[in-house]
Amino acid sequence: MRRLLLLALVGLGAQLVDGSLGMAYGVTSTTLLLAIGTNPAAASATVHLAEIGTTLMSGFSHWRFGNVDWRVVLKIGLPGAVGAFAGATFLSGLDTATAAPLMSIILLVLGLYVFIRFTTLGLPKGNLGKPLRKRFLAPLGVVAGFVDATGGGGWGPVGTPAILASGRLEPRKTIGSIDTSEFLVAIAASIGFFVGIGSEDINLTWVLALLLGGVIAAPVAAWLVRHIPPRVLGSAVGGVIILTNVRTLLRSDWIDAPDAVRYSVYAVIYVVWAAALAYSIGQYRKHREEDREVIASASVQESA
């Protein structure tokens, strides 16, 4: 019962972050399932089954708040479904000893990308309003879908920063469109896992626990996307992903690091993480004050 409650809380927290940042539900949830010893393919399958419900609810909520560009959803979601099915069948064919560290490496790379991208660069705002081309979105969808299925998460960490970096779609619509299109990816990945490993290794009770937490959080996250600074959330979530997957790798048969080494590495990560959060919060406040000054100056000029 305690584990089910933990899974529900993880689902709730992961969806709050995912719905307001456009990433990290799958990465966060899969990381936890791996940490408690779940088979990698079963962990990814469990998360993707839960995501069918959470992404449906999240997409509906984002649509109600006007956060969805349906052209982007279709252009990236359909290729993403193809990539997700391919990734699920690929992961299903790997043995557990190989798949667990491999998945942790994928998750660690995604975590580093999210952490560095949002901490150092924030969100670009150039080219806003220009159309996103199919020749950009289709390959991005295939890659993101494949990574998502093999890594247990990655649709958001790959897709959201790539679209934000283009500067062509405002953040709230980027997040809403990525969350909504993930519904197609979750369905395709789930089908791929059923084909690859069947249903016997999937704990449906865990699926329901993750789903319950995610469904409760989805409408709240769609509202929060307008209020919480993505830069700070990116630094926070990236740090969680990095720490957890470094722990998995250091304890794996590939490395099997002694306690002294592991704790030293953890200490370094905590220090860097705290510094990154402080920097992100400081930069957010700085830019917020600059925007207020610009608005105030414009108001004075208009009144004059």
TrEMBL record:
It is found in: Cell membrane; Membrane. InterPro entries: TM_pro_TauE-like, TSUP/Inactive_protease-like. It is a multi-pass membrane protein. The chain crosses the membrane at residues 72-91, 97-116, 181-198, 204-225, 232-251, 263-282. Keywords: Cell membrane, Membrane, Transmembrane, Transmembrane helix. GO terms for cellular component: plasma membrane. Belongs to the 4-toluene sulfonate uptake permease (TSUP) (TC 2.A.102) family. This is Probable membrane transporter protein. It comes from Winogradskya consettensis.
